[in-house]
Description:
16 helices
Amino acid sequence: MPDERFAFVVVSNRLPVDYVVAEDGSTTWKQSPGGLVTALEPVMRDTDGAWVGWIGQPGGDIEPFENGGIHLVPVALSEIEIEHYYEGFSNDTIWPLYHDVIVPATYHRYWWDSYVEVNQRFADAAAAVAEEGGTVWVQDYQLQLVPRMLREQRPDLSIGFFNHIPFPAYGLYSQLPWRTQIIEGLLGADVVGFQRVADASNFSRAVRRLLGYTARGPHIEVPESEHGPARRVTARAFPISIDAEGFEELARSSAVRARATQIRAELGNPKTVILGVDRLDYTKGIGHRLKAFGELLEDGRLSVEDVTLVQVASPSRERVESYKNLRDEIELTVGRINGDFGTIGHQAVTYLHHGFPRDEMAALYLTSDVMLVTALRDGMNLVAKEYVAARSDEDGVLVLSEFAGAADELRTSLRINPHDIDGLKDAIIQAVEMTREERRRRMRSLRKRVRENDVGHWSRAFLHALAAERPSRP
Ligand code: GDG
């Protein structure tokens, strides 16, 4: 089908399906339950859409195919490209730099070369499937050069870009040896979307400082050059969300409710269950949370007879050195806390280093009295929103880091600075002791916000802004 063209094309590092190889060697595709697929499904259905992305495995030149009504266009990556473009430049240069250098960013010129080469491959694939005058929506930090590469080949397209992670302050961003190329890459889009207002301002400031362009409010004026005529680019916040209704429905099902009761019983029916759910990533502040919890046990403000902490840490980026070190550090801390404070019948921390099905996550949310989101820096944090969506009983307390994008919206959570361990400890105690009335009041208002601003609202707002830019184009 080489000539098939589509009016709407999504480009992301990963396709919305996973390539699964069974024990007998046969292969299948499994729909991944990501929020992006849920958000874009209606648009894909209505506008004849294609999705360009990597299959998550090395090699394999796979022909485009249909899955769940979506036309999928696989982009092949070699072992060495996975190492240099993905694990290297994306996850060991951009990821730490954009999360305020919580761990140092590593700069290698051969990682950058691979990033350029792979971005070009994604841009070429998108250019080949988008129809004349179509819309292409590029996702996330692995593909920041794609908008410009695409515009160079296809000036007829409407191009959007959404950055799922933060965009750092100029003082940090300016470390990047390829800072100008990345900004120019992003400015190939008509609309560049960010999670928070502060991210969009950081971007506009970098554009002013590095390129000297005029940036007023959400608009950046890109002057005429050898790359094309003068254009206007919109850079602003579109806070992402979840399929709130779908998640609530799942959490309301009798199977999930029964499982929630069962989990609590298996934990020994403690008075209070505290929960943390994160990819095992240094941005999530898991160590800070454990420190606060450990100190509360040590101080005698909490006791293992009454309170238990469940920490789900799903495996992530296990071949990157800083992630290996983090895992060792977290597991050592969990071991110490359990050794120091656990009793025969009561474990202080239940630590789970594996992924769970979605319904098990919903049951965990439902059974937990306190949800701890202590990210040191996080684009949005969907876990916080899922917890709120699951709690149709209007119970449960969300403790939320002010460094997560979700803190801009979820204002009746207990907002904390995770670096302030004493403040975090006080917030945990406040959450544990909060009256039912106050829990209901706070949760009601959080739920209103999450219901109103769901993921459908996010994708519609972005695509509406992109369509509005059309008249300003040549
Ligand atoms: C990036 C940005 C931004 C986690 N463990 C399991 C599991 N999960 C699911 C959660 C949630 C998702 O993964 C994680 O989303 P977050 O938003 O919390 O964090 P990142 O993965 O870092 O996502 C972030 C996001 O992009 C969207 O723009 O919010 O700031 O860093 O949905 O539930 N799901 C299942 N089993 C697990 O073990 N089923």
